[in-house]
Design the sequence.
């Protein structure tokens, strides 16, 4: 699936974009499902639906209303939709992941991040591993572009080579804030590169890459499917932040009875109370007042 130069890019830069990977049929099935969810969100005034850990599956940006829906995240769409299982549990995206961390690969969790025109949702710079710490680093964030993505509609931005270190704290004092400190944010804003592409392209990114992105300032939607996958001998050290009924499912090869460790010290996150990591990063939503 991946050629040597793509594998080399992943090793050197920490990410690689693979064009034209998802079939038109699969893409269409996912976007129809998502369009329906956006339509359904118009009937809600606060976050709704329930995931395995009792949080809301559908997360709304502040200012959401039936005229201007602002659905910003759907947690684990695979739990409720075959269209997403068809892409994340088999097929070319998984073959590409196998080329980098295979042959044995396990699903951890997934989500849809949505930036519709007029929404303010941004992503502050962070590494993914500190949210879901594991015993080793064979851990990939797979990104599937559901729309064409560019700087104007709030594309993902990645700091090249940041997977090689350092491993940053995602705390402010005793609070797990899910982002790096202001100085590193600024460095990323200046130096990160845009991940641009067409609907159906994928990006494979190391879980240690610093990444983020601005709000959508265009008239075009930016919807992206995001999935954490690990080698099957890589074990989570904590309950997932966003557990799925499929967490731990083998999507390629076989289960491993060995656990592989790497040396070093890892900062443990705290489970945040918010429905999504946007809330953990301090962006207001319309969460039910249950806390
Ligand atoms: O939506 C994006 O552009 C990136 C999202 C992200 O980094 C995350 O949800 O962890």
Sequence:
């Amino acid at each position: 699936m991946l050629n040597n130069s793509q594998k080399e890019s992943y090793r050197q830069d920490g990410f690689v974009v693979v064009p034209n990977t998802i079939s038109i049929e699969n893409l269409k099935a996912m976007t129809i499902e998502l369009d329906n969810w956006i339509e359904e969100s118009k009937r809600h005034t606060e976050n709704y639906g329930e995931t395995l850990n009792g949080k809301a599956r559908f997360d709304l940006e502040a200012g959401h209303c039936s005229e201007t829906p602002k659905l910003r995240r759907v947690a684990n769409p695979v739990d409720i939709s075959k269209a997403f299982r068809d892409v994340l549990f088999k097929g070319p995206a998984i073959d590409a992941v196998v080329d980098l961390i295979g042959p044995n690969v396990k699903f951890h969790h997934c989500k849809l991040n949505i930036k519709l025109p007029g929404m303010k949702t941004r992503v502050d710079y962070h590494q993914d591993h500190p949210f879901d710490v594991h015993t080793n680093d064979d851990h990939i964030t797979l990104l599937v572009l559901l729309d064409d993505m560019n700087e104007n509609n709030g594309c993902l931005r990645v700091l090249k080579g940041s997977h090689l270190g350092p491993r940053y704290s995602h705390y402010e004092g005793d609070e797990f804030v899910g982002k790096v400190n202001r100085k590193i944010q600024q460095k990323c804003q200046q130096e990160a590169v845009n991940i641009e592409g067409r609907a159906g392209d994928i990006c494979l990114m190391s879980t240690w890459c610093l990444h983020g992105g601005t709000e959508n300032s265009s008239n075009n939607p930016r919807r992206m499917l995001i999935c954490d996958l690990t080698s099957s001998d890589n074990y989570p050290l904590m309950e997932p932040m966003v557990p799925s009924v499929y967490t731990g499912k083998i999507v390629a090869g076989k289960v491993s009875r060995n656990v592989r460790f790497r040396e070093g010290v890892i900062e443990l996150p705290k489970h945040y109370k918010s429905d999504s990591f946007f809330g953990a990063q301090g962006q207001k939503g319309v969460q039910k007042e249950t806390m």
Observations:
- Residues 138 and 231 are 6 Å apart (CA to CA).
- The longest helix spans residues 24-41.
- The chain is about 20% helix and 20% strand.
